[in-house]
Structure prediction request, 1122 residues.
Amino acid sequence: MAWLWLLIPLTPLLLVPILMRWPKLRSVVWLAPLPALPLAFMRPDTLVLPGLWPGAQLGIADGLSAILLLFTAALWLAAGLCAVSGHAKDPHARRFWVFWLLSMTGNLLLILAQDGASFYVGFTLMSLSAFGLVIHNGTTESRRAGRLYLQLAIVGELLLFMGLMLRVHEADGSMLLTAWQETPAGLPTLICLLIGFGLKAGFWPLHVWLPAAHPAAPAAASAVLSGAMIKAGIIGLWRFMPRGSGEEVMSLPASVAPWLLAIGLISAFYGVAVGLLQTRDKTALAYSSVSQMGYLLVLVALLLSQSVSVEALGLLLGFYVVHHGLAKGALFLGAGMAHEYRLSRVHWVLMALPAVALAGFPLTTGAVAKSLLKDQVGNSAFAAWEILFYVGSMATLLLVSRALWLIWRSQPGGPPATMPLPWKLGWGSLCLAAPVLPWLWPDLRVALLDTLSLYGLWGLMWPLLLGAVVIALVVRFNPQWHLERLARYQPGLVLSLRLRRWLQTRPVARDPMLPERPVRMPWAGWRNLERRWNRLGRDVVQVSAWVMALGLLWVLL
Amino acid sequence: MTQVLFYLILGVCLWALGLYGLLRLKESIRRIISVNIMGSGVFMVMVALAARSEDPDPVMHALVVTGLVVAISATAFALRLSVADVQEDDQ
Amino acid sequence: MTAALIALLLPLFTALCLLLLRSRSGVLVIVTSLLTLLAAAWSLYDVTVNGPQWLELGDWPPPLAIRFQLQPITALLLVFSAMIHLLVAVYAAGSQHSKTRYTDFWPLSCLLQGSLNALWLSGDLFNWYVTLELLGLAAVALVALSGRKAYGPALNYLLLSLGASLVYLLGVALAYGRYGVLDISLLGAMTEADTTTRIAWWLMTLGLMLKAALWPFHLWLPRAHASAPTAVSALLSALVVKGPLFILWRLWSEGAPTELAVEAGPVLAVAGIAALILGGWSALRTPWLKSLVAYSTVAQLGYALMALGLLMYWQLPALDAALWLFVLAHGLAKASMFLAAGELQASLGSKRVSALRGTTETMPVAMFAFAVAGGSLIGLPPSGGFLAKWLLLEPMFETVNHWPWVVGILLGTLISAGYVFRVVALAFDRADPVPPDFSPDRFAHWLALLPALVVWGLALISEPLIHWLTGVPL
Prediction:
C-alpha cells in the first residue's frame, strides 16, 4: 500500500501533459490534490525509493505531517475551485494551471518528504514554479515583483542547498530527516538554513519580496502563496533543525533561540506597523502574513530553546499553520472577489469570520492558536515576553480591520452582483472553516473548550476590547496623518530594479550620431599587454619550438 | 665504443640543429627541411645505438626503416601542403 | 580479442575500399562505423567477462614481439571512439551545412579511426610512434579539407606534429638503447631512476605534450581546430588529442620508475592548472565562436593533465578513473559543442560570437545543445564533467595541504563558467536577434544535442562506472 503515496505528487504532474494536450480539461484540474485527503487519514506505510537516491522516502511519520498534508491539500482544493471561475475567460489559463499544478506538486511533496533530498526537490519545484503564478497578470507591477521574487528565491535555493549539504555531512551521509533531528548542527549550517528557509517564510528582515509578490499574483494564487507556500519555510526549519536532547546536540541551537525569538517578535510588530500604513488591501494582507510568520518563527525558537515538549509544540504548529493558512487564504480570495463584485451583507459576514479568527476571537480556530501560543511561551524559558503576545493580538485586530476597510473601499459601485457558484463554494468553505473546524476536529475541539474558562476568555478578550476602543477612537476622530509615504519605501524592490538596470545598460549602446570619443579605460594597459602577448603567439611553430627547446634545457639541467 | 659515441653525439647535434631550424626559420620549405634534419639525427642515434654490440641489433634497423617510410610520406604531404599554401598567397 | 581486431581492421579496410573504388559515399562509412561500434562493444563485453588479453603479432616471443593488448580501458576507449565517429559520420552525411559530403573526408576519417584504434590497442613505444604519425597525417589532411584558408594552420600543425614525433622518437631511441625492450609492460619492470631514463622519459613526454596540445604546447590547436570543417573539428577535439594523452598516461603510470613519476608529477599538474586558467582566459576573450570552443579544449585538457600529474605525484591509482572520466565527458561534450557551434555559424553566416545574439529564439535546440555540453564542461552536477571533477577533488579534500590544487580547479571552473555563460547570455538577448541567413537544419541540431545528453546521462550510471574504472587493474 505504500506506493499509494506516489499518487499525491504524480497526479498533478501527470495532469500537466494532459492539460497541454486537452486544454478544455482545465475545469477539472483543480481536483488534483484530491488523493491527499484520503491518504492523510489512511496513513499507509512509508514508501522507500532507493532507486531514486539513497534514503529517498515518502510518507507521514507523525501527526503534524498528517495535519499539514490534509489542510494544505484542502486549501489548494478550495483555492483551485475559485481559480476555475476566476480564470474561465483568461486567454492564458493553460499557463496558469501548469504553474499551479507544478507548485502544488512541490508543496505536497515537501510535506511528504522523509529525507532531505526529497524535501529539497519539492521545495525547489514549488519555489520556482510559483514565479509563474506571481507574474501571471503580466503587468509591470507583477513582473517587477516576480523579478525580485525570483532573485531572492534563487539566493535562498543556493543557501538551502549549502545547508542541506552541510547537514548531510554532519549526519555522516544520512539523508533522513529523523537522523538530522538527532545530529548537532554547526553555526554555518544554521545560518544557511535560517536564511535559506527564511527567504521563503518571509519573516523580517527577509520579507522584502513578500508584500510585493503576494498582491501581484491572481487572487487564487495569492491565497495559496500566502496560505500554503510560505509555510514551507517554517516546516523546513522544523524538520531540518536538531531537536534531540543532550548538551552537545543542543548547545548551539539553544543559544540561537533567543535571537530567533527576537526576530520573530520584531517581525510580528513590524508587519503590523507597516501593514497599517498600506493603502491597498492585498498589500496590507501580505504584511499581516509577515507578522504572522513572526509568530511561527517564535515556535521554532521555542523548539530550539528546548524548554517545552516537542509533541505539544508540534500540535501547536499544526493548529497555527492550519488556522493561518485557511484564514489568510479566505481573506485573499475575498479581496480578489471584492475587486470585481460588489459584496452583499452575507458576504461581509462571511468575510469577517476569518478576519476575527486571525485576531484570535473566542470560539474560532484563532482563539486556540493564540492562547496555546501564549501558554507555551508562558511555560518556556521566554515567559517574560508573554505580555507581548497579548499586545500582538490587539495589533493583529487593528491590521485586519484596516485590511477589511481597504477591501470595502475597493469594491466597484452598483448593486451587489451574483457570484459564480464555484467561487462561492470555495471561498465560503474557507470562511466557514474558522468557526466550524474546531467542532469537526477532536484535537482542536478539546483545545477550544479549554479556552472557554473565564480566565482564558478574559485573556483572549481584553486585547481585542482594547483594539476595539482604538478603532472606535480612530473612526470617531478620523485623524489625517498622511503616513503613506513611509509605506512606499521598499528597499528590496528598489535594489532589484537597480540590479536589472545595471545588467541591461552595461553594454552602453553608442549613438551613431555622436562622434566617437577615445576613452582611456583603466584596463587599457592590460589590454595592450594582452595584444602584445597574442602577437607573440602568432608564429605557432617558432614559439612552440622555443618552448620545446627551453623544456629540454630544463630537463638536461 | 668511441665510434658509437661519435655518431651518437653527431646524431644529437643534427637533431638539435633541426630543432634550432624550426625555431629560427620562417619559410615553410626550410622548416620542412629542418624537420627532416631532426629525423636524420634521430635515425643516426638509433643506428649508432644498434652498432654497440658485435652483431648489430636488427630491431633498431627495422625501426629506422619504418621511421624512414613515415618520414618520407609525411615530408611529401608537407611539401604538397606548403606549395598549396604558397599558391594561395600568390593569388 | 577478435572483436577488437575487427574494430581495428574494419575502418582501415573501408578507407582502402573508398580509395580504390574512388567512392566518396557516406553511407558505407556509417555502416562501417556502426559495425565497428558493435565490434567494440563486443570486445568490451569480452574483456569484462574474460579479463585482459594479449595478441602477439606474427607469433614472436615477448621481447621481440609487437603485442596488442586488450584491457578494459582500451575496450572502453574503442567504444568511445566508435561512438563519436558514428555520430560525426551521421552528421557529415546528413547535415545541410556539412561541407564534407562527397569529399575526401570519408576515407580520411576512416583512416583516423583505424589509427586511433591501433593506438589504443598498442602497448609498445615504437608502435605508438607509428600510430601517432598515422593519426597526425590523417588529422592534418582532414583540417586541410576546408580549403585554402586552412592550409596555413594545417601546415603548422603538420610541422609541429612531425617535430614532436621526432622528439618522442629520440626518447624512444634512448629508452631502447638503455633497456633493450620497447614493450611498456616489460619496461615497467626494468626501469630505474637514472639520468638516461629521466632524459628519455622527458623527451617522450615533451613530444607527446606537443601532440596532445597540452599547455604550453597548445598554440597550434585553436587555429587548426577552428579552421577545420565542423565534422573534423568535432573529431579532432573529441578524439585525436586524447591519443597522445593515453600514451602519456601509460608511459608514466606503467613504464616509469616511481621516483621519476613523483618528481615529474607536480610539473605536469602545474602545467594543467596553467592550461585551465590561460586557455580559459583566451576562450573568454576570443571574438570567434569556433576559437572559443577550441580554446576550451585547451583548458579542459588541463584537467586531464592535472589528474595525470597528481596521479603520478601522489601515486594514487584512484585518479585513473578521474582522468578517463574527463576524457569521456570532454569528448562527448566537445563533439556536441563543435557540432552545435558549426551549425550555428553556418546558419547565421557569421563566425563571430557576437552573431549569436538571440539564438535561443531562432535556433533553440542547437543553443540548448551548446549550453548543455557547456554545463558538463563547467562541471555542473549531475553531468559526467561533474563526476570527473568530483573524483579529482576527492583526494584533495583528505589532506589540508592540498588546497592550492583546489584553488586551481576552482579558478578553472569559474573561467569555464565564464566562457560558457558568455555565449549563453548572448543567446538569451532576444531584444534584437540576428536573423539566420540560411534555414536552420533541425536534424543536425538534435544530433548535436545527443552526445550532450549522453554526457549528462553518464551521471545515471556513475556509480557502476566509477567502480568499474577504479576496479580495473592495469
